[in-house]
Amino acid sequence: MYFKKVESFIAKLGYSVSYQNQKEGIFCIDGEDDGIKNLIIGVAPPILIIEQYLFTLKSDDKEILKSLLIKNRDIIHGAFVLDEEGKKVIFRYTLQIENLDMNEFEGALNSLGLLLSEYYEQIIEFSKK
Questions:
Q1: Would you list the DSSP string of 31-80?
Q2: CA distances for 50 relative to 26, 36, 42, 54, 62, angstroms
Q3: Which residue of 4, 6, 47, 113 is surrounded by the most CB atoms within 10 Å?
Q4: Count of CB atoms situated within 10 Å of the CB of 98
């Protein structure tokens, strides 16, 4: 039920689906106009998880990590997170799925698009260090 609902939201917003697995509750979508590439959407009731890989840390640069934490405060929805190994920087957003509507879903993706458009120069610089 939730998987189909999310699938319809993705289609209505015009994102392309490069991978989906209903059994695992996973979508991988692209929206080149928004800078979204290989965005993972996980349908895991009671939540929906949205994750966008951004870059891999080449070192434990405290200034990069500090900058990401400071920027987290400015992000209205979602946050920068690290993977389990502490190397990959990911944008992560979680939503309650039970009453999820189209506006809320679109807002989550717009939040990521806005972040990428505002912060892309710093992200590129961080990925080089």
A1: EGGGTEEEEEEEEETTEEEEEEEEEE-SS--HHHHHHHHHHHHH-SS-EE
A2: 10, 11, 6, 13, 26
A3: 6
A4: 10
Interhelix angle 102-128/2-13, rounded to 10 degrees, is 70
DSSP 100: -
- Both tokens of 40, joined, read 């993972």
Q: For the chain of 129 residues, list the mean pLDDT of each consecutive stretch of 10.
A: 96 95 97 85 96 93 93 88 95 94 92 84 88
Joined together, the tokens standing for residue 62 give 């405290």
Spatial strand order of the sheet with 16-21 comes to: 16-21, 26-31, 36-44, 47-56, 88-96, 79-82
CATH class of the 2-128 domain in this structure: alpha beta
CB-based burial label for 111 (10 Å; 0-12, 13-18, 19+): middle
Residue ranges of E strands in 60-102:
79-82, 88-96
User: Distance between CA 128 and CA 76 in Å, rounded?
Assistant: 26
In eight-state DSSP terms, residue 32 is G
Domain positions in the chain are 2-128
